[in-house]
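Q: Given only this backbone (308 positions), what sequence would you predict?
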């Protein structure tokens, strides 16, 4: 009997002790939550400082090794200059080197029909489908002053990049983001904040001459027509021939685009400058099989001025 009473007493003590410990933990829970929230907020704040959206300098990029850059997306980033000075391009022969152009947003011009039946054009926001390989880098060219205005002529570098964006409805629009053969004329003779450069460039065909479509048709190789449509080879007119002509008549389209660049910052010590740009160019034509769409790209650019 005494043993039973002892066991019951021990059980009661254990239950009471556990209940008090539980109440003590509940009393401390709010403070623990605050501590955890503070830690998470600190981690989140530190990560914000390392997000790709923040500006990065040329010196920062040059200080990193290949393995430090690999897989981070930094190879697709353009650096930004800091300063409000000015760079003169008179007296010597100069060239712009390390020109980097990084688009941030893409819009596609689409035709929409209102409820009243009115057809109008509007810019539609898109979703990027390409991995981080769409920036242009290492672009270079000569700089001259003609009629008191700067003229930049693109000559070399990675001046085009295959890119694809997706419309809200799911349609994907491929295009060759380009500044090939760009000739841009400025509104002044000095590279300084406020300088604007604008000009046209070449947009080569998205597909090369060796490309074959699913039916084996191409420009320099493959068939001239689909295998199931031999009548078109002899020019026989028939139902649907006009619709299929563009698909059979493959061609290497070379189109053109326009770009405007505005200088925002100039670092005289490093002979570098950066700013923003707006570019308009056509999309892929599927080697003449469809009409191109107009693409509007907006983003940042960076360049360095060097004496030849």
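A: Predicted residues:
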């Amino acid at each position: 009997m005494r043993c039973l009473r002892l066991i019951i007493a021990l059980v009661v003590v254990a239950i009471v002790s556990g209940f008090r410990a539980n109440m003590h933990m509940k009393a401390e829970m709010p403070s623990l939550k605050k501590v955890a929230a503070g830690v998470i907020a600190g981690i989140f704040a530190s990560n914000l400082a390392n997000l790709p959206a923040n500006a990065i300098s040329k010196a920062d990029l040059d200080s990193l090794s290949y393995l430090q850059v690999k897989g981070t997306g930094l190879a697709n980033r353009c650096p930004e200059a800091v300063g409000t000075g000015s760079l003169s391009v008179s007296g010597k022969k100069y060239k712009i080197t390390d020109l980097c152009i990084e688009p941030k947003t893409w819009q596609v011009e689409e035709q929409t029909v209102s409820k009243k039946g009115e057809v109008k054009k509007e810019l539609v926001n898109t979703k990027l489908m390409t991995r981080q390989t769409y920036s242009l880098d290492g672009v270079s060219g000569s700089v001259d002053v003609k009629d008191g205005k700067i003229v930049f002529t693109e000559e070399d570098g990675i001046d085009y990049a295959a890119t694809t964006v997706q419309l809200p409805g799911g349609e994907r629009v491929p295009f060759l983001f380009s500044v090939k053969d760009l000739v841009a004329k400025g509104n002044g003779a000095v590279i300084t904040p406020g300088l604007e450069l604008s000009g046209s460039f070449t947009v080569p065909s998205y597909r090369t001459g060796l490309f074959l479509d699913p039916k084996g048709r191409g420009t320099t190789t493959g068939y001239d027509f689909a295998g199931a449509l031999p009548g078109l080879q002899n020019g026989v007119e028939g139902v649907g021939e006009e619709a299929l002509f563009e698909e059979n008549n493959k061609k290497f389209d070379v189109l053109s685009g326009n770009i405007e660049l505005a200088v925002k910052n100039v670092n005289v010590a490093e002979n570098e400058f950066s700013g923003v740009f707006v570019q308009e160019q056509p999309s892929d034509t599927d080697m003449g099989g469809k009409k191109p769409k107009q693409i509007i790209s907006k983003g940042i650019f960076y360049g360095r001025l060097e004496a030849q």
